[in-house]
Amino acid sequence: MTSATAIPGRSAPALSVSLVDVERSFAGATSKDPPRRVLRDVSLEITPGEIVALIGASGSGKSTLLRQVGGLDVPDRGSVRIDGSALTGIDQRSAIAFQEPRLLPWRSIEANVDLGLPKGTPRGERRDRVAELLELVQLTDAASLRPRQVSGGMAQRASLARALARGPGVLLLDEPFGALDALTRLTMQDLLLDIHAAEPATILFVTHDVEEALYLADRVVLLGVESGYASNSGAVIRSVITVPGTRPRDRGDSSLAHLRAELLEGLGVSTHHPVHTF
Amino acid sequence: MAENAQKHDLAADSTTESAASLVQYVSGYGYSAAGTALSQRRRGAIHSKRWVIALGFVVPVLLLGGWQFISATGLVPAYRLPSPTSVWLAGIDLAARGQLGPYVGISVQRVLIGFVAGAGIGLVIGSLVGLSRVASAFLVPTIGAFRAVPSLAWVPLLILYLGINEDSKVTLIAIGALFPVYTTVAGALRHVDPHLVELGRAYGLGRLQLLRQVQLPAVVPSIVSGLRLALAQSWLFLVAAELIAASMGLGFLLSDSANNGRLDRTFLAIVLLAVLGKTTDALIGLLEMHLLKRWT
């Protein structure tokens, strides 16, 4: 494991995130359909520097919740605060990396990372910072390549570097490794932990993968519809699990087996593991 | 695991061509075969390009041969089909009278001015309609109605208001060039990948920045294909303008010579229009290739 190079003086301090009674509905498919509620009564306090995983079945509002924190979408009810101040639209204190790399195809990897830097950064400083970030995500050799010339894993790393460029207090990741093959994915998880050590932002990430959540996160938040409710009544936080131990965790840690089974049962997967579901 | 990746990087460094070796290193680990396939395809394209150009000349040469054969054997009388030689001589003759150069020059000038003006206006209106829903709601029905008017219908009005001069001809050509650019640009801007637009917003780009850094680059290929259509349209409208009211130009040569029974000159005008049209189209094709390489 290479220790990531710390970047002195550039990253903003990690910030707290606070969600209070967040609710979000979307209009139905046609004007006659009733609105579809995706989230309701979501309250969560995230302390600065914490890594929190959002997990849930497809359509359980994970991405929607992440978008509320990033200011890309606005809740119908409730409030989102970063470092104690309420969000007004897109917030430059947070940065988001999407499920797809979303690199601009006509720009080099380098220039794509540059897009993430705050406006008004002097040119020399931009260049240095981009070079540092590319080194951090091990893309120095690919700096001048176009996105179509690199692999999916490399593109996803570039997207991560772009999100880190402004030194965000809150880093939001929407299934950042979901589209990668299993091995690349493991490498990327370790890279993320290296980055967190180098630039300790608060990280909120969405995943489908129970293993990934348990390996990376301090806490795992399970979203889902409460039993006995209709599916369009909106997902709530079903449970919040604090993962024991410190990182880097042992991937084969047997003491996590119970948590794994618990989370999988929570996702509606039968594990055939002797465990009491909640 | 990070150690592994580091080792690969070193391996990539140690070879001479770092870009090429990177592609190999990537495909060597099964990430992306596209890297190598791409370079091979490019090499293949250079090889076959000469063939494509050479093959493109086969049919014109055959046509010319057939034409020469038909007129030489007297299959079709000369007053209905002048021979290639007589067309060539008609060109020499017109050039000697000092008419050919000015005719070609004035036609090219009209096309270029009309094309640039029309395409420019089309670009502005297309951007407005493609980017703003309000502008779209305001303008689209009216523009659609104007576009539905057959181009020649404007001629009497243009002559009445602008007179029989350069202005009326250039304006007609501009009208012809405007609509293809407007349609392609407005359509393309409306369909820019919403993911990329959202990305731009998430990274704090304002409206103008978003246009400059994301939306315009994304529609460069569509703009160029719109320009290409517009240029073809410009030549079309040039002939329309010159057939009706002109004392110079290829369109004038076309109608004047047909009226005087100088079929050799009519053929000359047609051949010149074909060559000029194809040449300007090829130039814009080169621009397109260059831009596509840069912007996709």
UniProtKB/TrEMBL annotation, chain A:
SMART domains assigned to the protein according to its UniProt record, in alphabetical order: AAA
Segment forming the signal sequence: none
Pfam family, one: ABC_tran
Residues covered by the ABC transporter domain: 17-250
Keyword line: ATP-binding, Nucleotide-binding, Transport
InterPro entries for the chain: AAA+_ATPase, ABC_transporter-like_ATP-bd, ABC_transporter-like_CS, ABC_transporter_ATP-bind, P-loop_NTPase
Domain of life: Bacteria
Full protein name: Sulfonate transport system ATP-binding protein
Taxonomic source organism: Salinibacterium xinjiangense
TrEMBL record, chain B:
Example GO biological process: alkanesulfonate transmembrane transport
Domain of life: Bacteria
Start and end residues of each ABC transmembrane type-1 domain: 104-284
Localization per Swiss-Prot or TrEMBL: Cell membrane
Topology within the bilayer: Multi-pass membrane protein
Transmembrane segments: 51-70, 111-131, 138-164, 170-189, 235-254, 266-287
GO cellular component, one term: plasma membrane
Keywords: Cell membrane, Membrane, Transmembrane, Transmembrane helix, Transport
Record flagged with keyword Kinase: no
Entry-linked InterPro entries: MetI-like, MetI-like_sf
The keyword Cell membrane is annotated on this UniProt entry: yes
A Pfam family hit: BPD_transp_1
Principal location: membrane
Family per record: Belongs to the binding-protein-dependent transport system permease family.
Protein name: Sulfonate transport system permease protein
Biological source species: Salinibacterium xinjiangense
Taxonomic placement: Bacteria, Bacillati, Actinomycetota, Actinomycetes, Micrococcales
